[in-house]
Amino acid sequence: MGSYDPKKCTVNVGGRFITGFDEGTMVSSERDEDFFSEKTDAQGEPIVTETHNPFGTITITLSQTSPSLPYMNDLARSRKEFPVWVNYNGEPKEKSGGTRARAKKPAGKEYGDEAGSREFEIKVFDYTDQE
């Protein structure tokens, strides 16, 4: 049986390692579209269309007290492109991200009786993932 260690996951945004993730899902990454779409013609013959959309989305969830929070908000406000990589160095090794990305907006805010979370959605324009 395998073993998972969240400390073996690193997130690098714009050359800086991000820290201070919230409990639960720290980061998620996913290609925006499937590799192909399918349909049938009028007589039931299948047609497969290859999809060449290079976009992906990485979502980072930080704690309200994260030391990376000001950096991520400033990066979103800058409206500049940056590289972003998510690496899992356990088994199996996985890597996702790209060299061209932008944060869609600064994190929303909520306040309550416990420290909240801050979420950043990053659109990756040349998304890749590999094992």
TrEMBL record:
<dbReference type="InterPro" id="IPR021695">
    <property type="entry name" value="Phage_KPP10_Orf10"/>
</dbReference>
<feature type="region of interest" description="Disordered">
    <location>
        <begin position="90"/>
        <end position="115"/>
    </location>
</feature>
<protein>
    <recommendedName>
        <fullName>DUF3277 domain-containing protein</fullName>
    </recommendedName>
</protein>
